[in-house]
Design brief:
Helix 1 runs antiparallel to helix 3, helix 4 (48-62) runs antiparallel to helix 5 (68-83) and helix 4 (48-62) packs parallel to helix 6. The chain has one domain (3-129). It has helices spanning 3-17, 20-25, 32-39, 48-62, 68-83, 90-105, 110-120, 138-153. By secondary structure, the chain is mostly helical.
Length: 159
């Protein structure tokens, strides 16, 4: 068993020990054991996809039992450790965790979903990558505009 796999196993066990029943009892409190388990995902040897799956499963389950503020804190903590020193995959990680939260919200009544969406706010909208814009020379720009005008007016090309 490699170090990364060992850390993942420990984290999975820690998150599994965080029983949903305990979450109901300690509604307004973040469990230190969960944050400790999340910290194991900082390891550079971690298989990132496995770490994302573990966190996503955890987040989708706690949505139903934790208040919105606590759910948001767990989301932020998971996002922070999974994105740490991994800029190339940061957007994909964010999308995966948002999908997990939204999956957990599917079983909630609408009156519980609204406060959660409000609390999560911008966290549910991963930043979009800026699409590189093509810069045209003045001649290329004029040709492009002319072609668009011709297409809109219905004139055949190449006359």
């Amino acid at each position: 068993m490699t170090t990364g796999t060992g850390n993942l196993y420990i984290a999975e066990q820690s998150l599994a020990q965080f029983r949903l029943k305990d979450a109901r009892r300690e509604l307004g409190k973040i469990e230190a054991g969960v944050l400790t388990a999340f910290d194991t995902f900082r390891s550079p040897t971690l298989d990132l996809s496995s770490g994302v799956l573990v966190c996503a499963e955890f987040l989708s389950k706690i949505v139903a039992v934790c208040p919105p503020a606590i759910t948001a804190e767990y989301f932020k903590a998971a996002l922070k450790v999974l994105q740490l020193n991994r800029p190339a995959t940061a957007e994909a990680v964010h999308h995966a965790l948002v999908a997990a939260i939204e999956n957990g919200m599917e079983s909630l009544p609408k009156k519980r979903v609204s406060p959660l969406r409000r609390q999560m706010g911008a966290l549910l909208k991963p930043p979009e990558r800026e699409v590189p814009r093509v810069r045209y020379t003045p001649v290329a720009h004029a040709a492009r505009v002319l072609l668009e005008l011709m297409r809109k007016s219905g004139e055949p090309r190449g006359k």
